Amino acid sequence: MKTDDIKCELSKNGYNSSIILWRNGVGDNIYDTLEKYHNYIVTQLVRFDHYLELMIKGSDFIQDLFNGKVLDYNECCKGIDILPQDASIIAFPRSPKPHECTEKWVVDNWV
Asked: Over 29-97, what HEC string results?
């Protein structure tokens, strides 16, 4: 996901790993490098998202590929009674998580 339309993100043009779609073969180098240098990487980077930003350049963003279908809960859906008509996926980066929400549509669907 791109950070631009995620309320809790303070950066623009960054990555948020709440939803990731991998193309075949893309993840091998990312995993192998993280496994090999894990102890060093975690001392230099605060979040996995930052690691992805360093390892993957020019990625496609799910919000662009599926315009209007993938929404951030805090930005688009918090406190509303009915979800936007075209929404297919609601992401819950950081907090709250679905089990902490009280909207009827969340309670009805998070069982």
From this structure: HHHHHHHHHHHHHHHHCCCHHHHHHHHCCCCCCHHHHCCCCEEEHHHHHCCCCCCCCCCCEEECCCCCC
* Domains of the chain: total: 1
Interval 50-105: pLDDT, tens: 999 999 988 899 999 999 999 999 999 999 998 888 999 999 988 999 999 999 99
What are φ and ψ of residue 88, in 5° steps? -120, -35
Q: Is the CA virtual torsion 80, 86, 92, 98 positive or negative?
A: positive
pTM: 0.80
Determine the structural domain holding residue 29 and report its residue range. Answer: 3-109
Q: Is the separation of the CB atoms in 106 and 87 below 8 Å?
A: no
Dist CA 103 CA 7 (whole Å)? 18
- Distance separating alpha carbons of residues 7 and 30, to the nearest angstrom: 27
